[in-house]
Specification:
InterPro entries: CutC-like, CutC-like_dom_sf. Belongs to the CutC family. It is found in: Cytoplasm. By secondary structure, the protein is of the alpha/beta class. The protein has a single domain, classed as Copper homeostasis (CutC) domain (TIM Barrel, Alpha-Beta Barrel), CATH 3.20.20. An 8-stranded parallel beta barrel has the order 1-2-3-4-5-6-7-8, surrounded by 7 helices. The chain has a two-stranded antiparallel ribbon with strand order 9-10. Helix 4 links the parallel strand 4 and strand 5. The mean pLDDT is 93.
Amino acid sequence: MSTRPSLEIAVVSPAGARTAREHGADRVELCTGLELGGLTPSTAAVEAAVESGPPVHVLVRCRPGDFVYDGEEVALMAAEVRAALRAGARGVVVGALTPDGALDTNALATLAGAARDTDPAAQVTLHRAVDQASDPVAAVAALPGLGITRVLTSGGAPTAIEGSAALTAMAAAAPGTDVAAGGGVRPGDIAGLLTAGAGSVHLSAKTRATPRRAAGWVPLGAGGTSAEDDTHFVTDGAVVAAARRALDAAAGGEGHAPG
């Protein structure tokens, strides 16, 4: 794990990756369906984000809902892992639980193995499935044995700042694992999260896009309850820049270099 804390921004498009890069992100986590907690993006989106942004880590999650997967879903996500890395991603972000809230070590071994077989240098991160585990700290302690070197977590709390004590326990339970604080993170939280033991911080820095439609509107699925609400998220460069400044100040003004 790097000794210098890093800034990761969750983005949903190549444009978001470019905005994150221009305003100081060290890397991005690319997904789609951010309003659903994030889903696997298309291979074309990965390729375009790699071209336009800083190093790209791809969220691999084949559907919304719980993190208990059957064999067909695990096989699909393993294929998505391979596709993301072949498209130029530097890492993948995965997760799976058993029905009783333990890590699904078989599924995680399959996903991590797919990553290593495709790119031995790829970083594998456990995503926020850990926050729905029955014992998040114990789950993090098990990660080194699975070849997973990073965990994205709010410490099992609604927001990372509320889960600060658990973040400290996680960092102690798995030395060398990058505990990335994510979940409702605001720039003003960053100093406290680093003090708690986070090795990196993750935030979406999102804002709702202004709808472009000029014609009529009817609801489609769960997209929104009004024409104004039925829109998508974009990356807010001002929030990224504020997070960059807060991280550099908390880390002693070392600056950043994407990696």
